[in-house]
Every structure is written in C-alpha cells, then in structure tokens.
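Quick one: DUF4386 family protein from Nonomuraea salmonea, structure tokens please.
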Amino acid sequence: MEFTVLAGLGGIGFVLVGLIVNAIYLRSGLPLPTSGQGLDAATDSYDGIAGALKRPSVVVPVTWLCLTFFAAGLLSVLWRGDADQGAWALMGFAAVVLQNATFTCIEALRFGMATAARHGRGSMAGLWGMSNVLFGFNQAFLAMALLGFTVAGVSGGLVSVWQAGLGYASAALLLVSSLAAPYNVEGGNRLGLAGLIGWLGWLAWIVAYSVTLLLR
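--- reply ---
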C-alpha cells in the first residue's frame, strides 16, 4: 500500500476517532476547556468522572498516529515542489507534531485534575488553569498546520479554491481564538465560538485533503 493511501486513511481516521472520543467525553460530563465552567463546577465534574475518563482515552493515541500519517503523507507529496512549497509544507508538518505534543499534555492534565478533585482538591486550580490556557494556545498550532499545508497545496495544485478558502478562514479563526487563551484561565470562554467554528473547518479541511490523497 502506498504511503499516500495510508495518509489519506489516516486523515479520515483522525476525524472519525476524534469525533467519537469527543462525543463520549461530552456524554460522560467531561468539562472541556471551552465549556465555560468555573473552577468549582469543573472540580465537581472531575470528581465524578475519574473512572469514565480511562475508557475513551485508551484510543486517543490512535488519533495522534493517524494525524501524523496524514501530515507525513502530505509532506512527502508537497516536498517535491520548489523551495517555497517545501518550506510551507515543512511548516505544516512541524505544527502537527507540536499539536500532538501539546495535546498529549492536555490529556495527561485531565487525569491529574481527576486525581486532584478526589484528593483534597488543593492543586485543582493550577491544573485547571494550565489546561485551559494550553488548550487555547494549541489552536495556534492548528492554524499553522492549516496555513502551511494550504499554501503548499495551492502551489502544488492539490488544493481547490474552496478548500483553500476553508483553510485560510479556519486558520484565521483558530489563531484569533488562541490569542484569548490567557483570559480563559479561570474557565471563561472568550472567542470560544470562533475556535469551535475554526476547529470544525479544520476537520472538514482534513477530510477534503484526505480524499485528494486517496485519489492520487
């Protein structure tokens, strides 16, 4: 099987598994950083869902594997162009690696908060604040990935006009939302709608790019 096929399957797999995991999280009552919950409400939620966190988190590393396959496949295709195209593609790949590393920390922090909520709650404030800000800043990496791979894809003829527009618009929304991250430290939700729309655009953009890779 060619690597570009694995990359296309990886992109679609990332979207599907990611949506399923997030749906399970929301159903279990996990207070996501974009939920707007305050510290007390988040602490009570984590206290009640400590056991439920483990089951969906088992498959979370699969999303990072799928996304890395997707990004590496794009890089392998887009690297063959001129120097500028390769540089933009490398920017996109680096951003995906950074987002995987950042989200690993966010996932680990959730277990830290679940433990803190059950044992004294003293460190919950710091962990909750760190999780909120880190989640917000991570959107900047998504914006970089969108921008890098979109510019490189346009140059290489892989990206259509509508997909380019989607990529640029989603990148702008995610970057703007990331700027508000320090103001969400207490559990606020400033510019959360912009981030949500940008994230949904990111998923649609991945599916479109994955289909392109599968049809090559």
